[in-house]
Design brief:
With about 525 residues, this protein is of the alpha/beta class. It is built from 20 helices and 20 strands. Helix 10 packs parallel to helix 11 and helix 11 runs parallel beside helix 13. The longest helix is centred in the C-terminal third of the chain and has 27 residues.
Length: about 525
């Protein structure tokens, strides 16, 4: 059995980590004895022609993918393309979006044979051995599929009670060096589940209300595995990492016991942290936490069932400052009943906290209370174009606000940062910026360059590069500069030097030319990357 899993295109500007959910799926498929590959189109350019070449090269029996709402169309279109290219393929899809939009997905995309609903690992371990026998699908709980002109749902599968039974995510199937080149952290989870009832959240229905934990020893084993690839920063992506103080302290003790050298961040709730917990996390290498505060208006917090108070947020932020930990707050615009007053309350409160903060627009995703029960709220959803569900533009209105007014509010906040950025850029160009400004601006330019290299397959398209001056790096830099005319040559030179020194980019020389390629990973370099 050969299974090709597709990491569907996702905006690099949204800071994607290596796709953790897909790696769990890949590991579950591998545990059945299947031969699995991941076709990653997040950090590589996607074209239908490339997909066809890679399917021809691997010759899978099954092609599967996962998506969130904002990249659902891209993921579904890839399965449609694969099915039309080879109708004998079995196509399947999972993830939070399709788990709560099963019937629409299957009816709009008949090329998708089946959907894996909710947590997929145990479902796949049962499904993969019988997937070629369509008559056996009905006996596998947790899937939906076409049968003639109707949709068959096989029944709900219970959540996985012992997360330690799951194989570790199959990160060895990813082109890890490309993600490392981006400089974003890699994500892990120590638990699944969230007991809270925020009306805009999709995750609690996906992974359950009861928090299920992994053993700390196994989690730290995974961290050691991640570090072996050369990563030095990790994000704990639990819905509520700080739910249980005793477990947090125990986890931190395990990290300190093993004397691991890395930094990490986590998502937290303001009503679950205290000074002792945060100090323990800081001593174990955690240097940043993100709080979803959502609104600075007391009535709005009650309306969205956030379950926190503004005083709890103040205390949590103060604790972070006391232990020397960076705190970041997220606020949401476009919540039910949003008005100029509630938006201004959020702005006032965010400024009072005196920390990094940002705004997201409400995206009423399938499976959320606010979407399922929208008639109960002062809210109108204006579109079902899933491409617009990126939380960057308003796609709702309330009785008090138009989407244009919501956008204007957030744009005004963004403009204050743009002004500061332009001023810092001017100092950077004049060589009189602060060291912190230099690192920030140079890092931004470097990231933009790497976005370009990855999303357009620039290195692959330039191969081979004739050697005229004997320096392959300078030759590559010169060719890239011809394409990326908006990026300073010095930035290109310095960025490429870093990528080569770090081992992310390598070359082989033959017949007077340099053949450049992205390495696969730094732990077991199977370069060049095993794609056609």
């Amino acid at each position: 059995m050969k299974i090709a899993l597709v990491a569907a295109p996702y905006p690099l500007e949204e800071a994607p980590s290596p796709p953790l959910g897909l790696c769990y799926v890949a590991a579950a498929c591998e545990s059945t004895g299947a031969d699995v590959t991941i076709l990653d189109y997040i950090v590589r350019k996607y074209t239908p022609e490339k997909l066809a070449r890679e399917l021809d090269s691997f010759r899978p029996d099954v092609v599967g993918t996962s998506s969130v709402t904002m990249n659902f169309f891209a993921a579904a279109d890839i399965l449609r393309t694969a099915k039309r290219y080879n109708p004998a393929l079995i196509t399947m899809m999972g993830g939070p979006h399709v788990s709560f939009d099963v019937e629409n997905t299957l009816r709009q995309y008949p090329e998708i044979d089946l959907i894996v609903i909710g947590e997929g690992e145990e479902t796949l371990q049962e499904l993969i051995p019988v997937i070629k026998d369509r008559n056996a699908w009905k006996d596998v709980k947790g899937i939906a599929f076409h049968e003639d002109d109707r949709i068959v749902f096989t029944g709900e599968r219970e959540l996985i009670q012992d997360l330690d039974t799951l194989p570790l995510p199959a990160r060895h199937l990813l082109p890890m060096s490309r993600y490392q080149a981006l400089g974003y952290p890699v994500s892990i989870i120590t638990s699944r589940g969230c007991p809270n009832k925020c009306i805009f959240c999709q995750g609690r229905r996906m992974v359950g209300y009861k928090v299920r934990h992994r053993s700390h020893e196994l989690v730290v084993d995974e961290i050691e595995d991640v570090l072996s690839y050369g990563w030095n920063r990790i994000n704990v992506a639990d819905d509520i990492f700080t739910a249980n103080k005793k477990r947090v302290v125990s986890f931190c003790d395990e990290l300190k016991k093993r004397n691991l050298s890395f930094t990490w961040s986590a998502f937290a709730r303001v009503n679950t942290v205290d000074l002792e917990m945060l100090r323990c996390m800081r001593e174990a290498g955690c240097d940043a936490v993100s709080f979803g505060i959502e609104s600075g208006n007391v009535e709005m917090l009650k309306r969205i069932r956030k379950g926190i108070t503004l005083d709890q947020a103040r205390k949590a932020v103060q604790y972070c400052k006391e232990v020397g930990m960076l705190a970041h707050a997220s606020f949401m615009v476009g919540l039910p009943g949003e008005s100029h007053e509630t938006m201004n309350d959020s702005r006032t409160f965010a400024e009072e906290l005196d920390i990094l903060y940002g705004y997201h627009m409400l995206a009423p995703l399938p499976g959320t209370t606010v979407r399922d029960e929208v008639e109960k709220y002062d809210l109108e959803i204006l579109t079902n174009d899933w491409n617009l569900y990126d939380a960057n533009r308003a796609i709702v209105r309330t009785s008090h606000l138009t989407p244009e007014e919501m956008n204007t509010f957030v744009d005004a906040y963004a403009e204050t940062h743009r002004v500061k950025w332009r001023e810092a850029e001017e100092r950077y160009r004049n060589d009189n910026c602060t060291p912190e400004e230099y690192l920030t601006i140079e890092g931004f330019y470097k990231t933009q360059l790497i976005f370009h290299l990855l999303s357009e397959d620039v290195v692959e398209e330039l191969d081979p590069i004739p050697l005229s001056n004997g320096d392959p790096v300078r030759e590559l830099s010169a060719r890239i500069a011809e394409l990326a005319t908006n990026i300073d040559r010095g930035v290109i030179d310095r960025s490429l030097a870093h990528l080569v020194t770090a081992g992310y980019l390598k070359h082989s020389d033959e017949a007077g030319a340099a053949h450049w390629y992205w390495t696969y990973n730094n732990r077991s370099d199977r370069s060049p990357v095993p794609y056609s």
